[in-house]
Sequence to fold (281 residues):
Amino acid sequence: MTVGPSGVNSDVAHFYNGSGKVRVAGRIRDRWGGNLHNGYWHDADDDAPPEVATDRLTDLMIERLAPRPGQRVLDIGCGIGKPAARLLRAHPVDVVGITISERQVEQARAGAAEAGLADRATFEYADAMRMPFPDDSFDGAWALESMFHIPDRDRALAETARVLRPDSRLAIADFVLRTPISEAGMRAVQRICETFGVHSISPVDEYLAQLSSHGFTDVDVLDISDNVARTGTLLADAWEAVRDQMVENGNSAEVDAMITATRDFSSTPEFGYVLVSATLG
Ligand SMILES: C[S@@+](CC[C@H](N)C(=O)[O-])C[C@H]1O[C@@H](n2cnc3c(N)ncnc32)[C@H](O)[C@@H]1O
Fold:
């Protein structure tokens, strides 16, 4: 069982290229340190601000990727390049980031140049389901909250396996479905999927079967659903505060749907969140 709208994810590119609501939403994210992903909080007493909590999630992914000096790492769905920059500062590796948003490619390149990392960071417009790289091009890869956007995750994982060299590490941060799912829960999941261009979300077992069918072994799963859950509420509160700036060209219903869906997200127990790591071969 995989839910989410089917078809190509041109809606996702449109989303990240920036309609008015997303430009304002993006400015909030920028204040969160430019990470387009969830934060990680240790427990209820942890009052770390979002920019710290989102960097923590990147650090957990860096640990799971465990890169070695000189390696070439593929960043699948690189956003505006913040996680890649953090990885580059922590390890002497090269990163190639791909995204289906032209705007993000420009932002990521500019950010890397500004940070003095451009000699080790390349950002390209490319679809994870059809990667423009020869076989055996990379020593490691990560997908930080990008797999759920991809209509055919199986194909993206096949492509990932193709471009990785044997023994490469793969780290994934993604939403999964917690089962059993009530009818009301399924409706909430569908609504959220449609609002945010989520094309591919499934129970973790299906995910793991796909990884295994593409030759990934030594798979480890860490469920951090409770640690990231606060993100939706914080984001919805922040967007609510600038709701009027997000509305343009009569899209108020769309903006409100985005805020409501974000708020619903944290209170829909069917959504889980995992970090998965594996080795190819
Ligand atoms: C939630 S953002 C995460 C960005 C970044 N990993 C981060 O954590 O800041 C999702 C990213 O996945 C990218 N994406 C979605 N579908 C994709 C596809 N088919 N191929 C490549 N990238 C894709 C989006 O363009 C966006 O950069």
Q: What stands out?
A: The domain at 10-280 is CATH 3.40.50.150 (Rossmann fold). The beta strands are 72-76, 94-99, 121-125, 138-144, 164-177, 216-223, 271-280. Residues 4-8 have pLDDT under 50 and may be disordered.
